[in-house]
## 1
Amino acid sequence: MNQITQTLSTETNGPGLYEITRPVISWCKEQAIQDGLLTLFIQHTSASLTIQENADPDVRHDLQDFFSSIAPQNGTYRHSAEGPDDMPAHIKSALTQTQLTIPFTLGRLALGTWQGIYVFEHRLQRQNRRVVMHLMGD
Amino acid sequence: MNQITQTLSTETNGPGLYEITRPVISWCKEQAIQDGLLTLFIQHTSASLTIQENADPDVRHDLQDFFSSIAPQNGTYRHSAEGPDDMPAHIKSALTQTQLTIPFTLGRLALGTWQGIYVFEHRLQRQNRRVVMHLMGD
Amino acid sequence: MNQITQTLSTETNGPGLYEITRPVISWCKEQAIQDGLLTLFIQHTSASLTIQENADPDVRHDLQDFFSSIAPQNGTYRHSAEGPDDMPAHIKSALTQTQLTIPFTLGRLALGTWQGIYVFEHRLQRQNRRVVMHLMGD
């Protein structure tokens, strides 16, 4: 059994869902592994990971609106030193995923037809987000 | 180290939690693996996975009510072409899990006494949901 | 490839986030594994796992407040036999994680600088929570 780890950097420019499906799949296919397990781990607590529909972009906008309404910037938070968008960002991260693990079989990631992998950015300002990719298998 | 992948199909008939603990455990026990890691991955974005109490069925009904109140069908969504239950389904999926990974030790899945594994259906109409099961170990 | 499983017990005393980063890292370093995958699995449905900022403690208090406001104890629930804090605890668990998987590379867990691993206790009374740690690798 083999394993490989690499970090994927994603530039974000404001809140929203940034698709990383293609670079993730490309990286998996470059490795000498046909069957195994892919783990994605985002090294931040104000951005997160989610698997969502990759068809209608309205789904992503509605998702973003939902999370903004449930954890609004004008809420009352103790933690405010890093700006009004920081505490809501931590809440949105807690409500979604820091890590995703996906089976990789016969050289294909086990995503459904309409599933895409996204970095969910919750901060207002431009960020560089690191997602650790770990593939283990044969 | 060995690994096996198989898809579990689950018929659902309206919103709610459908337990899959037994077929998952049965499948694990059929494999020539005693110790390893089980990953469950649902190939949909309008149904999800969750581990919840398997004792009082009221817990599942209360959970369903909670998620319906937080992401109501009569909310205002851009994405409406697939019916009023579709965007709430995506939100509920984002708030729960697409994937679960569970240690498998000495032929036993590491579930606690009161834990059951559920497909959480968020759509109104009858569906056939696919959960990819991946077991890796010795 | 090797694998090791052990249970980490955590005493909790009321709702809140209890950091387990240090004992988890210590345990990983004691094993004869340099590269692999760590899986944490909490065997309960009224406490959960989350990765959050480990710097400003206000973040943890704001998180706790958020989850208490979204799933209040004075809500209307069918399931009430185990006390007014039990059903909210199940909801908060469903909204966060039962399981976390983290790459372990060159003897280091792939946590970001500001990330800590927490048991998120949702019950009022003193509890003893079990987290199964599973490390697989070389």
## 2
Amino acid sequence: MTETLMSQAEAQAYLKAHNNWGRWGKDDQMGAMNLITAEKRLEAVSLVKKGRNVSLSRPFPKTPAPNNPTPAMHWMRALGRRFGVSGVIDFYGISYHGQSSTHIDALCHVWDDDGLWNGRTPDVITADGTQWGSIQNWSQGIVTRGVLLDVPKFRGEPFVPQGKPVTAAELEQIARAEGVVMRPGDALCVYSGRENYDRASGLPWGSTGVPRPGLHASCLKFIRESDSSVLVWDMMDEEREEECPWGTHSAIFAFGVALVDNALLEPLAALCAEEGRYEFMLMLCPLVVEGGTGSPLNPIALF
Amino acid sequence: MTETLMSQAEAQAYLKAHNNWGRWGKDDQMGAMNLITAEKRLEAVSLVKKGRNVSLSRPFPKTPAPNNPTPAMHWMRALGRRFGVSGVIDFYGISYHGQSSTHIDALCHVWDDDGLWNGRTPDVITADGTQWGSIQNWSQGIVTRGVLLDVPKFRGEPFVPQGKPVTAAELEQIARAEGVVMRPGDALCVYSGRENYDRASGLPWGSTGVPRPGLHASCLKFIRESDSSVLVWDMMDEEREEECPWGTHSAIFAFGVALVDNALLEPLAALCAEEGRYEFMLMLCPLVVEGGTGSPLNPIALF
Amino acid sequence: MTETLMSQAEAQAYLKAHNNWGRWGKDDQMGAMNLITAEKRLEAVSLVKKGRNVSLSRPFPKTPAPNNPTPAMHWMRALGRRFGVSGVIDFYGISYHGQSSTHIDALCHVWDDDGLWNGRTPDVITADGTQWGSIQNWSQGIVTRGVLLDVPKFRGEPFVPQGKPVTAAELEQIARAEGVVMRPGDALCVYSGRENYDRASGLPWGSTGVPRPGLHASCLKFIRESDSSVLVWDMMDEEREEECPWGTHSAIFAFGVALVDNALLEPLAALCAEEGRYEFMLMLCPLVVEGGTGSPLNPIALF
Amino acid sequence: MTETLMSQAEAQAYLKAHNNWGRWGKDDQMGAMNLITAEKRLEAVSLVKKGRNVSLSRPFPKTPAPNNPTPAMHWMRALGRRFGVSGVIDFYGISYHGQSSTHIDALCHVWDDDGLWNGRTPDVITADGTQWGSIQNWSQGIVTRGVLLDVPKFRGEPFVPQGKPVTAAELEQIARAEGVVMRPGDALCVYSGRENYDRASGLPWGSTGVPRPGLHASCLKFIRESDSSVLVWDMMDEEREEECPWGTHSAIFAFGVALVDNALLEPLAALCAEEGRYEFMLMLCPLVVEGGTGSPLNPIALF
């Protein structure tokens, strides 16, 4: 696997050369979830030894912030009394893509000039929803082996700073250092220390107009070679050059990989350290939205 | 356990006499989730033998219908092109309580004259959210043993009709017939044949102004005696009399039980029949909404 | 002007032959509002003799109904106390097109195979809003002479029933009977007795799946010949045949006329009858939404 | 009238001593709109000499900004083709109170320890809306004489800066300088140069955490003595001291005056200067929202 730094341009070329289009048939909309077989789910289940669980979700982002320009809506309503009883309901509204909400991207979310996943054109997307690569394809849930690669621990630094992105070569080194081997269908979780970044910086990660540290596009090679099905990350792509415009996000349309953006990985990293292992069962249960481009999500890891 | 039909008035009296207030301390907000220990989660995991999974969620209810007077919102937005790439995002908005959306009720959702869960007054609920019994208490996810009680199969009828509600005595009989024993902390899933009802009726279950068949309030006794932590159901309470105003919904505030309303149980029932067993691992991953009264949900069962 | 019934096919042919494209320049986005000059506004003002005012708006349609499948949203929120004072705010959300909300249609709202107003293609419309014919073109408000044609009064019947649509010939007869002469730039208000219809019918006008009585497409000829700038109506197009698919709604893209749908005209009709005149000052103040396709509206008439 | 600077504490005392509670009956919900009689509307109409019109509304605030933490929502949806025609609709959603949206405050919007307008308690406000002082009371529209007081012109400075608030004494001087006399029922429009402020400052007026220049609480005396029915302003209250917590906003609950916040007054000021007069006809047409606390608004002035 990779040892030297791959450039953005090389990452883009790699992307074009190694996409998964047609791998599971030209009409496939499951993408890399095809790698999660019944056996893979049993492998995931076999990792649960203690019954400990942890959420990888940030709170529903209701508060406006520099990295949350369109905050989620939460409106309460009381129910009238009837026979001496009462109740309360609420409304949730969210434009979950962006830098605040923990969410999963469906295969239709992004594309480049060659098209969406499996080569479809953007014409499949209408104002009523997408006809291709919708989140509903994954409505039966995603249960697989999760592997956490802890970048701050490996580097001995609190967080990934701007200008020093995580690369494919580094991910390989971290896996070796953690004694973990990636296997096809895994959910790759890359912890970059977002909470530490937020505590150290005046502005939260992902603030509008501020450079965002994160992953280098070469990570695409690591994802593809490890045949990961999901990428779970707290920081996302470092500011991208033109050579690989969508950066690691390209894994969506090129490899059919699900992305879980803005995950909360600090508690997971702490639990991995405490348990002394970096593999676990991971459960992703996206809302079943016909034609939807993704879903807000509460990923749960089990140890 | 119960063999004869308990009246609504008796159910109400039972409710008052056997609530769980104080059982886990007067400041407890986890409710019956306290019964789901690490051991319980391991028990759930041990039920996964084949790696088969199935969703218990209906689609995000975007279409107005007689049982969906405030349909969910789904609005699409294209992202501008940048360096020859593009994308699409969307907005989801939902008032998920009611008869259409698969969702979980938090402990604050309903109450009676004695108060909310653990005896708190409704004063804990403000326009900004609830300060007590919010869904965020369950943000680490609910992983437990699920048990399906299949009423149509037991009765030899396609669905539960109006006037013939499911009772506690019947639930006991079904469990025996299925050869399954309820254990503390289980998620009790009661399948009443909602899809068959919808196919047979001119109007979908839960339509405004139409009587709703479903469970009898005596089921409260079954829930309490079995020490279930969650009730998952497709039909909900049959039209209630004054004697037990909130019916089986009372399990929320009296017992600290989570309710998963409008679950899709037909596919689960088919899978249980196929596998010849009615117990499985169940995963509930509610959105982490501070002060929220519940969450839309995609429950996943694993066999 | 018209005396005999024009067929749907003739209305469609008339539409193609007499559109206003290019009349005010090929880049014009004001449409028939060009007819409302400063002099026209002064004419409108001159009609105010008594200082009486009346609203032509229905209530914000928050309640689900057979003619309101996507009800408007109204959510309240209390403001925290500060120095012993408090307050309350709310959120309004509305998909105002349809059969419930009193609203104005902008020139981009509908089109046919020949294109939008002034011949533009639908490509001007993106997910971020329209680049042509947006409501913001009318942000300075529409103040003009309003003329009410009272169909039920003329017919001696409470409302316009299905199968007996209002025609161009009838509008001419009503104007004569009321002693009013249409002038260029007028707002034509056609009262069809919607409230009487609602009281007489089991379902409100505009209910899904129910035929809708209203105007015949021949009214397009009346609008064009009278050079009206605005059409205000309570019932809209009667169920349309293929010959003139958009019916009287075609006035939007063909003539550049604003439509005010679902107006409340019963109180206006009563006031006209009481005052013994059918002309008045009309004020339309649409919200200033960049790229918007229209606006909810509270039209006010002054006598 | 006032000549010397009234302190915040004196303004608060004045407020308590001179409220309008009971002036139009203890059950009155129209407030100072009672001063707008048919004669007053005719007076307004008589000011229209040229037929010129101008909007006082900012654009629907869809873009997140430091003074717009909860931006308005605008979502587009294409209509399916039918018989070769098509259309487009959209959804507007707005939490209009705050510092961005031009809107009118209803009488229920704010209160102090003595209560809401006419002495009602906040108990009249429920999660379904307000039962007192709702915007629907003004559904027939507000048509009155508008008077613009142009502070920047009077001061010879581009905008009102922090620490130099507009006072009652200054308003009197400006009116004299403009040669205009306030009359009961007038809409008082106070232009403070918000656009100039925005151009000169790094952050727009009303940005979170930034002091806001504006009016001194003594303006309450000017409003009450002039018996204005409406206050239209571009900047609002200067940062308030505890002595008069709601500042000029107190006119809502104490005097029954409507406030039009975040008005766009620069074009109006330019037109007043050009026409050489500071009085005009003003039209306010709030949406008819039952139980609503106000409305987004497009106020139109006619000259």
